[in-house]
Amino acid sequence: MRRVAICSPLRTPVGKFLGTLAPLNAGDLGAAILKALVERSGVDPERVDDVVFSQGYGSGEAPAIGRWAWLAAGLPIEVPGYQLDRRCGSGLQAVVNAAMMVQTGAADCVVAGGCESMSNVEHYTTDIRTGVKAGNVTLHDRLTRGRLMSQPQERFGVISGMIETAENLAQDYDISREAADEYAVRSHQRAAAAWDEGKFDDHIVPLEVPQRRKDSIRFERDEGIRPDASMESMGALRAIEGRTNPDAIVTAGNASQQNDAAAACLVVAEDKLEELGLTPLLWFDSWAAAGCDPARMGIGPVPAVERLFARSGKGWDDIDLVELNEAFAPQVLAVLKGWGWSEDDSRREMLNVNGSGISLGHPIGATGLRILADMAHEMQRGEARFGLETMCIGGGQGIAALFERAA
Q: Where in this chain does the record put each Thiolase N-terminal domain (predicted)?
């Protein structure tokens, strides 16, 4: 199989839920990142074979959003595109799908991207297709409904949402509220420091956001970071499920955010790089996905990484940088215990060195590519050879992939 290069990974800043990016829907965000990718990479857009885009909350307003966003960006109509959904792992799956297309010769140059506007996820009903003769019509919030229905209830019962799954892991792995808050503070501090040191500058795509009855504003920095996060401020927050669970430890501070963003990269065959005028940042090495109990979905990276190492022949001694998406602080800490990392394990120093979902945000469909863009540039700075990206997935899955730094 052909060797696969990752070129020009870019991302927008991440917006808070109902924050600065709320005037832009998912299609707008996707179009913006695609336009920037073509401009910054210098690739001839007519040489792109396909556009693979991830989105966790698809909408009839922009169906097959890879194709929709490509067209909205004013790019060639001859290039096809599609949409995929592996929930939180969707963005990484988009890269994987693109890589497999290139490896097998089905394509030479593929755009892998992801976008999410959680601020604009719709409410919907399943009650009126065949008419309602009397009574009420139910409107579901797709955000909360998607979490409730992430598994077939006939088999697994009702799981109230992802918070419940994190609380289950906190109980299973004896994770304390203090440890969860400490980890959250670490995430915010590292993200704030990364911005202050200019670590995201080279691959951030600022956005012009329209405003009502006034000029548009330029959005160019992640919106959810709390530079002043402390144990005192975290400790003041109430547990979200505290009323029904006296042992609950998940708060708005030690959980990931709901967000808006987009990210993308070029996935290219090694033997086409020179012809296309592209320079790789990473080589795609290997990947794996695995299933787990939906009620403990956050542990998914443990079996996924185990499967990845078994398939690739790599192990922890080969890894220089780890990006484990922070769905919840207790979920991260449970995964570290599942990996056998002690509290003073030196490997923790290579984990999420610039923050992750708790501080930078978790715009579901864009997260995997947001992580990849940040990780690729960090690997260049630190001359890390192998980087591991992994995340848990609602419904009980994990996904993981290895990337090697290009010289």
A: 4-271
Q: How far is Cα 197 from Cα 181, in angstroms, rounded to an integer? A: 24
Catalytic annotation, pick one of 88, 115, 265, 292? 88
Does the annotation count 362 as an active-site position?
A: yes
The answer to the question of residue 40 being in a domain is: yes
* Residue tagged active-site, from 188, 203, 362, 377: 362
Task: Please name the residue ranges forming H helices in 218-270.
Answer: 231-235
CA–CA distance, 242 with 75 (Å, rounded to integer): 50
Catalytic residue list contains 292: no
The number of distinct structural domains making up the chain is 1
Task: Say what the pTM is.
Answer: 0.97
Residue 277's domain comprises 4-121+257-405
Residue 131 confidence (pLDDT): 86
Question: Is residue 271 in a domain?
Answer: yes
- The CATH number linked to 82 is 3.40.47.10
Q: What is the pLDDT of residues 252-284, one digit of tens each?
A: 999 999 999 999 999 999 999 999 999 999 999
Residue 7 known to be catalytic? no
Segment 93-118, tens digit of pLDDT: 999 999 999 999 999 999 999 999 99
Please state, in angstroms and rounded to a whole number, the distance separating the CA atoms of residues 52 and 59: 16
